[in-house]
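Complex record, four chains
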Amino acid sequence: MKYLLTHKTHPTVEEIYDALHDEIATLSKTTIYNTLKLFVEKGAAAQLNIEDKCVHFDGDISTHAHFMCQRCGTIYDIFPSKMPIIEDFASLQFGAHNVQNVQLNLIGICERCMKNKNKESKQK
Amino acid sequence: MKYLLTHKTHPTVEEIYDALHDEIATLSKTTIYNTLKLFVEKGAAAQLNIEDKCVHFDGDISTHAHFMCQRCGTIYDIFPSKMPIIEDFASLQFGAHNVQNVQLNLIGICERCMKNKNKESKQK
DNA sequence: AATACGATTTGATATGATTACAAATTTACA
DNA sequence: TGTAAATTTGTAATCATATCAAATCGTATT
């Protein structure tokens, strides 16, 4: 949990394992899977299904959206302060259905990768 | 593609395979994977990463959101006619990043499952 | 109609994330 | 300190998806 709260990179299980394996030599992936599942069930962390390859986790459970770069894989936070409409999505109702969770995901190419792309095309 | 357009159930590869295997006896899952990937790349279909287990596909590429029931797995369409705010997310910008796709996913328990749940608890 | 060749489809196999589960370890408390 | 419960671990199973070479198909040409 401390790792999640101090690393806002929306890590995967793999990334958490690689990062913590040094200080906690006995740590197993199973424990990470179990613990994250518990966090998500209890509402202490958010699970991001933004990518099909694997799941990302977020220790910030405040209302916010995400932007994922298809090229470099980086996931950026988008907070309501920058995009006020996000507040409106958080409280969406859908008929008589019981909405428990709202995820707003933007997908595209991030600014940095856009610049690299331009450089590449200029080189040709 | 015809299957996707006539079955608004947001099927998985598995479901498409099961459905089409009867009429197209030689159809392989690889072909379904390849074809759907192509559709998504070309913008003819949408890929839904709403669930962590597997990917769903949608032949409707008009602006709309989805609600997934955690209990029965059904994915419901939410069109702007019912929820006007959905029109707004189609044009979301995020700084100088290049937004190519926006997904709005609601997760919860659908009306039908809510009713069944109540019945169950009354029986106890 | 037969041939040739590129494009598509297939199926067997590989991969990689996630889960299941029993054994090992740790913790809490008597 | 001893013991039972809770947690953690590592191995093996599972399952969706990717890889890739071989098989098949479509089409144009003779």
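Note: Chain A touches chain B at residues 47, 49-52, 55, 67, 69-70, 76, 78, 82-83, 85, 88-89, 92, 94-111, 114 (CB under 8 Å).
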